[in-house]
């Protein structure tokens, strides 16, 4: 049996994340008007309240909790908490917009060999952490091999390599 390298399940991409929320309407407003996702059609066979949104190549599925009080309200912005991260074109623009919208955020800085990555962290209406960064500044260097890429090129290049490996098996 040949060793399957890199993608044993033959995955293609991230499809969606699901988030339980206190208010589907409030969460739709946040993901649509702050992060730029668009609502999309959700199967009518579902017998529970929710919504689907799509943007940046990923879906967000919002699921209405049956017990809104069961979702603890997070007050502290902790960059080490679970989060979803987005790259942006301008950290200054993001910071200005968050301030104008009166959204509390925390700043962080990652520095490696003179390369700096700025990060802004904030919560969605249910306390799920969102990160906005200029992560493309930081090269992605695999632990094995000599391939060095930016975040935005890495996924494309890895997928091309995986296609080549599959075609040779």
TrEMBL record:
Gene3D superfamilies registered for this protein in UniProt: 2,3-Dihydroxybiphenyl 1,2-Dioxygenase, domain 1
Domain VOC: residue ranges: 13-135
InterPro entries documented for this protein: Glyas_Bleomycin-R_OHBP_Dase (IPR029068), Glyas_Fos-R_dOase_dom (IPR004360), VOC_core (IPR037523)
PROSITE patterns, A to Z: VOC
Pfam families referenced in this protein's UniProt entry, alphabetically: Glyoxalase
Protein name: VOC domain-containing protein
């Amino acid at each position: 049996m040949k060793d399957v390298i890199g993608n044993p399940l033959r995955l293609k991409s991230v499809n969606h994340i699901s988030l339980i929320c206190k208010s589907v309407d409030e969460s739709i407003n946040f993901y649509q008007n702050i992060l730029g996702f668009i609502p999309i059609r959700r199967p009518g066979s579902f017998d529970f309240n929710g919504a689907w949104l799509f943007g940046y190549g990923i879906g967000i599925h919002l699921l209405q909790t049956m017990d809104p009080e069961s979702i603890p309200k997070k007050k502290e912005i902790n960059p080490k908490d679970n989060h979803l991260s987005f790259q942006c074109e301008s950290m200054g623009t993001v910071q200005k917009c968050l301030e104008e919208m009166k959204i509390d955020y925390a700043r962080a800085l990652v520095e490696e060999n003179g390369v700096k990555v700025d990060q802004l962290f904030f919560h969605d209406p249910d306390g799920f952490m969102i990160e906005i960064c200029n992560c493309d500044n930081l090269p992605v260097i695999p632990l094995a091999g000599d391939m060095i890429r930016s975040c935005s090129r890495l996924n494309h290049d890895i997928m091309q390599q995986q296609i080549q490996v599959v075609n040779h098996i």
